[in-house]
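Might you be able to consider the sequence and fold that I enclose below?
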Amino acid sequence: MTTTRQAIVFDLGGVLIDWDPRHLYRKLIGDEAVMEMFLGEIATLRWNAYHDEGRRWSDGVAMLSAVYPEYADWIAAYIDRWEEMLNGPIEGSLQIFTELKDRGQELHALTNWSAETFPIALEEFDFLGWFEDIIVSGEERLKKPDPRIFHVLLERIGRTAPECVFIDDSEANVAAAAALGFATIHFTSPEQLRRDLTALGLLD
């Protein structure tokens, strides 16, 4: 069993949790092409990201609905039925996370997530309670890949960047962490994550 003890920092959505607006909008919009148009041109991930930085959902919905009144019901559903965008944990990743916990590894999370919706995830996923710290962008009013939120993380957990392994599915976020001196893993699948953690001596 390895004696290595580094702080392992997980992203959440797309790494441990299957979050995707399509899980909701496939129920609301029968036409796949129309759904992709709506999510690609109107209720975009960029629009969603403003809420990850701290914008209130009531403001964001009102602003977008004023521009696209014909889509107001679908826009309102983005927050009114937000929990339906969650499709459970990514099982292979959760298994790895469980193994790391059982080995006594130091575990933290750094997530781009709205402060208003993150409590829903906390209630839904008991395993989020296994983290020693969770840095939520909406609470800090900073989001990845801004280097400042990584400094918030390091100050909060009392670690230096080279003492941390950062895992994220976003290449931009991984590049930002690497530039600060983090060891990084660009997540593409649980199988790849297991290989990379094993190569770092953090799993057998």
